[in-house]
Design a protein that fits this description.
heterodimer; A: alpha+beta; Beta-Lactamase; Heat Shock Protein 90; five-stranded mixed beta sheet; 12 strands; 16% strand; B: Rossmann fold; four-stranded antiparallel beta sheet; elongated
Chain lengths: 465, 223
């Protein structure tokens, strides 16, 4: 609507300019002619005095049909000659010009022009001649005025037409625009109501609205993916917590019924407490994961030798493996430096070693290595001879709560590898799962090789760069 | 032992008080940092258990103020914030130990008792003795009776910690933090494995056991 009004207004302004310019031009032309005649008459006065002018005016006006309007006035105020009945009764403007109206004198034999015997528009100039005479020269501009009037009418008509066209066009365009916006709005309403599959229509012209639809759809794709992930996480949390919660509930129930046997009751209660601890452990893992993913743990990152971490855990896991009937070996390259949080590296590597121990059957082997890899990074790797992870599942297992079917019966929250991934991400490293040593004697294998790579810290002297 | 609990959660405070009383200690309660500061100044306590987040004056400010007054009563800070940064902040403010909520009461008790013990003027000891078990900290040797026992470095540190806290309950988490310097829950039963190895070296060959398991809490080395 607004644009239609603007359109009409601008066309009106253009026409108004045309009007002012052409009307002004006509007036200026009339004034120029008047000036010419005045100059000619003044010259005549110089040459032949007042008589000459008087004669000239009489010649011109007698019988009508003179181009100009004249009036020569005696100093006494009496009209001497001319075709006006008296001086116009208006004040001259700054340039001594008068805009006035007069009655055309009725001349004998004149055509039936009496239709417009009423006032006609005229312009003129009053000049004081020496010796007190006054000379008025004017020009009938009625024709011009009516032309301008007609022009004015045309302009108004044209403006009205422009306004009408503008409004109609505007309504048409905005209807289409609104229709397309409505389509997008409808989609967003459906999405708000819960239908995440709807998408805004595209016309593929690449105009602004089309682009808006595209961006809107991309956003919806992302939201749908996030929602999907969240729903999955939520379902998994519910599923994973239901098991220990149910177990705990049953134990407490059992304890209630073990009235007589105090020892049994105490044991049951103790187990219920450890179930609670397991639940709290899961919550703590979720919390640290969220903290890591939000990037809050960068404060404690220091320059350090990753060998410290590898040797520490090697010392610990040597006994753990021995206890579980696993062969443990390690190989640690010293002297590399990375920017890392010691606690996080320990936790990440502990997760990998813990998984290896958990999933490798007795009689198998676990190997820990730290070395500079071909990409020039410090690479921790843990290789086991357990069942490994099928190729198709390797991407999936780093997602929260993903547990492969054959591991559901083992303790664990399904958060371990997500945590490793998050820890590696905090250090701008790379986490990789691959095939272990393959099938080995004793029915083991193919095994898993899990690795965390961390970029090496630049040499200290380069640090300031 | 006389303990001051500074905790705005009344239920949590009464849980701690009840437990402390059952363990034969006297426990007072202050509901915020300001009251805690007043009470700590007015009476002599063996250990302060201070919650970190409280109205009026938070736990860290309270401990800092006490330390500025040259009051060195051992402080255990309780907090729901458990990241490394938070611990470091807590210890920097003057806390002697840091325990993350939620915790088992046995854990809290073990730590409070360990803190109270530490108050004894800690002379530089070169020899630890528990029953017939002896540890020479300079020569880094361990003997039980006439027999020398060979320990791996970590086993040595584990035994050293247990001997320094002999007669007290030491929890798994305490061992993880103080001996391993791990501030996370390992995936495997690291502590149990190491304790059982240590036991097989210092106890198994001998008629009397020194290293006892305290059910639901941890371990205790006692002659």
């Amino acid at each position: 609507m607004l644009s239609a009004a603007l359109f009409a207004l601008s066309s009106f302004l253009i026409l108004a300019f045309v009007y002012v310019a052409s009307a002004g031009m006509m007036l200026r032309r009339a004034d120029a002619s008047i000036n010419e005649e005045v100059t000619a008459l003044e010259a005549r006065f110089q040459a032949g005095g007042i008589r000459s002018i008087n004669r000239y005016i009489l010649q011109r006006t007698v019988g009508g049909g003179a181009d100009y309007l004249y009036l020569l006035v005696h100093p006494s105020g009496r009209s001497l000659s001319g075709n006006l009945s008296g001086l116009p009764d208006v004040q001259p403007d700054d340039e001594g010009r008068l805009q006035f109206s007069y009655r055309r004198p009725v001349v004998a034999g004149a055509e039936e022009e009496d239709a417009d015997k009423d006032n006609r528009a005229a312009r003129g100039r009053l000049v004081e001649l020496p010796s007190g005479y006054q000379l008025f020269v004017g020009l009938d501009v009625d024709e011009e005025n009516s032309l301008v009037g007609r022009m004015l009418n045309t302009i108004f008509a044209a403006s009205a037409l422009a306004l009408a066209l503008g409004v109609a066009g505007g309504i048409f365009i905005s209807r289409r625009f609104v229709a397309r916006l409505d389509a997008i709005n409808n989609v967003s309403r459906s999405v708000k109501a819960g239908d995440l599959t709807r998408r805004a229509p595209r016309n593929n012209t690449g105009d602004e609205l089309d682009e808006l639809s595209e961006n809107f759809n991309n956003m919806l794709d992302r939201v749908e993916a996030l929602m999907h992930r969240m729903r999955h996480t939520g379902d998994s949390i519910a599923h994973d917590l239901r098991t220990p919660l149910t177990r705990m509930r049953n134990r407490l129930d059992e304890a209630l019924r073990e009235e007589g046997d105090l020892d049994a009751r105490e044991q049951t209660l103790e187990r219920a407490v450890s179930d609670t601890d397991e639940l709290l452990g899961i919550f703590n893992s979720i919390l640290s994961l969220s903290r890591l993913e939000s990037g809050e743990s960068r404060k404690t990152i220091n320059r350090m030798d990753p060998a410290v971490v590898a040797e520490d855990l090697a010392e610990t896991y040597e006994y753990v493996c021995e206890d579980d009937g696993l062969e443990f070996s390690f190989e640690v390259e010293r002297g590399m430096e990375v920017f890392a949080d010691r606690g996080l590296l320990l936790q990440g590597l502990d997760n990998l070693l813990g998984n290896a121990v958990k999933y490798t059957p007795a009689g198998g082997a676990v190997t820990l290595r730290l070395r500079r890899n071909s990409e020039g990074c410090a690479e921790f790797s843990v290789t086991d001879t357990g069942p490994g992870i099928p190729d198709a599942d390797r991407e999936r297992v780093t997602q929260r709560f993903v547990r492969l079917d054959n591991s559901r019966t083992l303790p664990g929250s399904g958060l371990g590898l997500s945590l490793v991934q998050a820890i590696v991400d905090v250090h701008n490293g790379k986490f990789d799962l691959g095939e272990g040593p393959g099938h080995v004697a004793g029915g083991h294998g193919p095994g898993l090789r899990a690795s965390m790579c961390f970029p090496l810290a630049p040499a200290p002297q380069d640090e300031g760069v | 032992m006389r303990i001051l609990i500074v905790e705005d959660d009344r239920e949590a405070a009464s849980y701690i008080r009840k437990g402390m009383r059952e363990s034969g200690h006297v426990a007072d309660h202050a509901v915020d940092g300001e009251e805690g500061l007043e009470m700590a100044r007015a009476a002599e306590y063996d250990v302060l258990v201070v919650d970190r987040m409280m109205p009026r004056m938070d736990g860290l400010t309270m401990v800092e103020t006490l330390r500025q007054d040259d009051d060195h009563t051992p402080v255990l800070i309780l907090s729901a914030l458990g990241e490394v940064d938070d611990r470091v902040e807590g210890l920097k403010a003057g806390g002697d130990d840091y325990l993350v909520k939620p915790y088992a009461f046995a854990e809290l008790l073990a730590r409070v008792e360990a803190l109270a013990r530490r108050r004894d003027p800690e002379t530089v000891r070169t020899k630890l003795v528990v029953g017939d078990l002896e540890m020479d900290l300079l020569a880094r040797t361990v003997n039980r009776g006439e027999e020398e026992i060979l320990l791996q470095p970590r086993e040595f540190r584990l035994l050293e910690f247990l001997m320094k806290h002999s007669g007290q309950v030491v929890t798994r988490t305490m061992l993880l933090e103080k001996v391993w310097d791990y501030h996370f829950d390992p995936q495997t039963n690291v502590i149990d494995v190491h304790i059982s190895r240590l036991r097989s070296k210092i106890d198994k060959p001998f008629p009397r056991s020194l290293l006892h398991t305290v059910r639901g809490a941890g371990y205790r080395l006692q002659a």
